[in-house]
Amino acid sequence: xxxxxxxxxxxxxxxxxxxxxxxxxxxxxxxxxxxxxxxxxxxxxxxxxxxxxxxxxxxxxxxxxxxxxxxxxxxxxxxxxxxxxxxxxxxxxxxxxxxxxxxxxxxxxxxxxxxxxxxxxxxxxxxxxxxxxxxxxxxxxxxxxxxxxxxxxxxxxxxxxxxxxxxxxxxxxxxxxxxxxxxxxxxxxxxxxxxxxxxxxxxxxxxxxxxxxxxxxxxxxxxxxxxxxxxxxxxxxxxxxxxxxxxxxxxxxxxxxxxxxxxxxxxxxxxxxxxxxxxxxxxxxxxxxxxxxxxxxxxxxxxxxxxxxxxxxxxxxxxxxxxxxxxxxxxxxxxxxxxxxxxxxxxxxxxxxxxxxxxxxxxxxxxxxxxxxxxxxxxxxxxxxxxx
Length: 388
Hints:
By secondary structure, the chain is α/β, with parallel strands linked by helices.
């Protein structure tokens, strides 16, 4: 990391609002203080957001997304079922036992790893904690949860999560969970889609159910931020209307429709609505969602260890016939959000590392995140805005 970037990261510690170090710590009792290899998406033993990579990348705050893969994935796809079975005892953790209890065990696994060296990293349960932990020169880790399927239809379980320090709930994921409609978030050109038939029922109404409205009410009461990533445009519209700007909303790991028109990504009016709520938009580090239409490569699957061909290049910004790197795609997306909102106040990073996604080669793990800062500097973005 060059000295100018390192100085900025020390002055304003970089925050990643969506990564999955706990998934492999839970499944394989992974030591998060050890870096195995960044590897390809299909390698279940690779690691991108382990604590060693966080330190090398000068990441100051990590929002750890606890994602328990939906069990329907294993029913729909015999290959995933076989892969999970070969990784016993991971298979039993993924397919047996109460889902909510498994979620709590995943949180326990992350806290176990943090306790290995509390002099370097600490769990934060509030904004005050983050300031204190960072003041002591340590990395702050925040609990978040991806997918309301873990509630098993019981909104009051959010109160137990709030007591554990959970700051954000990603409302949807691959399958319908009773809350509302979800997009098809498995890339269309993935090899696994040619071999298995997934019954996602994506996009089907109702866009927001009575259960979904109750979840939103409880989230407001316990001060957990709703994350609309994976929601359909229709669901997002109804969520915006239901919340009516009374609390911040986040889209933690997305792209923008101006660059890639998939319904997973945010339209300009949705970006403005999130900003009006006091929320933020996290840019995902996954070329499939960032490439300009027609440039997508084959990528990995968020949450399940199935590989794909390496992606990460498109056309370079401003070039003709040249290559556009992964970091260019990320910064193009960040700059678009800034142009639409007129400010850098609401632009954040949500890498989706260790969700078995395939990031660009030049951003393959947390140790490389400084290249985003470098790219922003090279494009002339003022230091005060980069610190935001």
